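Protein in question kept underneath.
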Amino acid sequence: MLCLTVGGKVEGCAIVAYRNGLTSARLYSLAVAPRLQGLGYGARLLEAAERAARKHGRLSLRLEVRMRNRAARAMYERRGYRTIARLDPYYQDGAPALRLERTFNGPAKTRNQRPPRRLPSAAWRPRTQSGASPPP
């Protein structure tokens, strides 16, 4: 689990899952506090999740996103994710999802990717399963 803290308060998190024997990791969840959405924090969490997957020797990162979540889909596309499947129905309410994947063996930057924006200071700390920060 990766946590985003702003002003000493946890304001977002990303959960990356790893299974033995697989070359891909799965982004299980990515969430940012509603008041901070649209400010680039989601992209920063996604970048941290990608770094974690690479650090664990994974060649790609997969995720599912609600089809009508255009903002999230646009962020993933800017980071080089491509659709590999449509899952219909997927969510408990019957809504469809898209399964996306980004492979890490190609160039990290896509032609549609914007340069990173300068954001207010935020602390990034990996968390253990208990929620405590690991020792420095």
User: Anything to note?
Assistant: The chain has one domain: 2-117. The CA atoms of residues 23 and 57 lie 8 Å apart.
